[in-house]
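Why run this: before we spend reagent on co-expression, it is cheaper to look at a predicted model of the complex and decide which construct boundaries make sense. The entries below are exactly what would go into the expression plan.
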Amino acid sequence: MSALLDVKDLVVRFYTQEGTVYAVNGVSFEIEEGETLGIVGESGSGKSVSSLALMGLIPSPPGKVESGTVIFEGRDLLTLKPDQMRLIRGKEIAMIFQDPMTSLNPVLTIGTQITESLKLHEGMNTSQSRKRAADLLDMVGIPDAYRRLDDYPHQFSGGMRQRVMIAMGLSCNPKLLIADEPTTALDVTIQAQIIELVKQLKDEFNMAMIWITHDLGVVAGIADRIQVMYGGRIMESGSSHEVFGDSRHPYTVGLLGSLPRLDSSGEEKLTQIEGSPPDMRNEPKGCPFAPRCDVRETLQLERCWDERPLLETVPGNGGDGAHIMSCWADIREGVAENV
Amino acid sequence: MSSQTMTAEARQEQNGRDVILQVSDLKKHFPISAGIVFQRQVGAVRAVDGVSFDVYRGETLGLVGESGCGKSTTGRTILQLYRPTEGSVKFEGQELSTMAGNDLRQMRRRMQIIFQDPFASLNPRMTVGSIVSEPLQIHKIYNDKKERQQYVEQLMERVGLNPYFINRYPHEFSGGQRQRIGIARALALEPSFIVADEPISALDVSIQAQVVNLMEELQDELNLTYLFIAHDLSMVRHICDRVAVMYLGKIVELGPVDEVYNNPQHPYTQALLSAVPVPDPVVEEDRQRIIIAGDLPNPANPPAGCNFNTRCPVAFDLCYHEPDPPLIEVRPQHFVSCHRVT
Ligand SMILES: Nc1ncnc2c1ncn2[C@@H]1O[C@H](COP(=O)(O)OP(=O)(O)OP(=O)(O)O)[C@@H](O)[C@H]1O
Ligand SMILES: Nc1ncnc2c1ncn2[C@@H]1O[C@H](COP(=O)(O)OP(=O)(O)OP(=O)(O)O)[C@@H](O)[C@H]1O
Ligand code: SF4
Ligand code: SF4
Ligand SMILES: [Mg+2]
Ligand SMILES: [Mg+2]
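The model came back. Tokens follow.
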């Protein structure tokens, strides 16, 4: 069976006055029908740009998709004309953003905004689409939904606006939902409401999902697979059990070590990753994590500076080879010195 | 016994610990006015609506709760950046709410604040050196320029900034480095108490641990007391000795962190803790969440009865008719305000 979405070697750059930004540097991944992929990484690691690229939403100039293919149901989305792409966006692939105010039009009522896409994609008339819009709002837990169709975005709270965005995203039963930090700006109690809602709807609609976040806790609860990004590249990818339970990349290990946990008392010092995130205007010759990597330092791995490790099956993985990483070192206990 | 009915002296004696800060029935209401020509007050945002707690010297007290519940206002009112509407704030035994002028300025040397946003809180036109030394100039300490520069360099070194960069501007630094600049500035006057208002929320995950470790080291070294305002409940458990949970301008639960996290008593604390995701899929699979519906009510128009009754999964008659439940000590040092918990 072929994947629902197959992204290969995606490269995206921005040509700015301050120089070229190497935002996404050869990213490949697949998503099966109904699967949830969590993309995690720090600010600037290329999470949003990779998902915008596959939706054809990179602002150009300054941005440019330099190369890559994005096969969705047999078609390469990167070769589609803008109006063909518009038919896919919202209908087959929907996207929810971190800040609903940037994607909701402040001068149009919520009802107008939801019915617009139902009319475009589903050919509904006004009364049909209003009925469906009210059903959707009701489904995402907006009380008194039919009456609220005539309210404007500012009349809703932050959590409610995010639910309105989800209702809009789901309006045409998309096969793939891309959620870019949809709960980051919300309080944990509201975040929990949204996550419960999305999980439930995902099962109901058998929708595949990409959930982008810097919060490792959030994806641990919802993702089937996790992809860890750093410097516009994938560092490690695998099932969430593998990536959390058997982390192999020094960056993943560092990130998890620097997180305190709700379920244990905080006696020990947090292990910190030294240094700061990379300047994306330089394309490192070797591993992008090299300047901050304690494993490189301990093992005195000089090649990390000059040779870029490929994304390959982790050493000793007897399974299906789906647990991959890009690192020269094998950090499993007892084998580190034999690298 | 209710903490609100205890006298300050009794609170201090009860624990035999050195109380650095005593907050009693503190209120801060912001007036809402209407009218174009004649402004008149039509209501008030009850941002902080009667909170009482002590802070012990050398400890870190966490202040948590949803956005808009009054955490920052509490911090600022303690420091007298906002003057209280009602209530008392005693710092090292001295009442701040009635203090003014030079007396207050002298007290402020000992109480500093670190802000959430290292980008917005530093003047972009000042060099790091002048940002860090500004408080020294205001308070006329180290009048000798050379000595002052040496001291600033020491401070920079202490917070992990290379003193070589003393003449650079904030935009030349990363977020984590800017937060270090903010910390160096806060430390310049050798304070004993620091309000840290979401000091790591704007930072990358890998940088948060750096800043938290630094804050912990400085605390040990300089015997600092922190009021740590945050919404990251996992970090609060890590860094704090005690935690106060706020809801709609009031403290609903207060106690030692392990006690509150292992044994939360207030329905809001229970929901809040159950909502925090844990970065471990095995744990997440079996977790039971208490999902509370709806949003925080408008603090200008809080519900009658218990503040939490519009969202509480276990509310009953009393919660709608009786006045707010008092903060009761249910176990040693563990206080809860809920009619269900007695
Ligand atoms: N329109 C643009 N012009 C120039 N550079 C851009 C633009 N959009 C993104 N970039 C750069 O591309 C890189 C990747 O950005 P991206 O938005 O994908 O990061 P991210 O991982 O989503 O981070 P965050 O967690 O902050 O959202 C960054 O260095 C960013 O500055
Ligand atoms: N200067 C002000 N004037 C009027 N209202 C204010 C002012 N400052 C805060 N408020 C209101 O007081 C309430 C409490 O705000 P506060 O900033 O203390 O909340 P917070 O708990 O710090 O929230 P956050 O987590 O979002 O920082 C909010 O309703 C806020 O809108
Ligand atoms: S390749 Fe080298 S520098 Fe990169 S993560 Fe692995 S050990 Fe560290
Ligand atoms: S007093 Fe009543 S409404 Fe308030 S938290 Fe307790 S049970 Fe819930
Ligand atoms: Mg992003
Ligand atoms: Mg605040």
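The first strand of chain B starts at residue 19 and ends at 34. Chain B touches chain A through 46 residues (CB under 8 Å). Bring this page to Monday's planning discussion.
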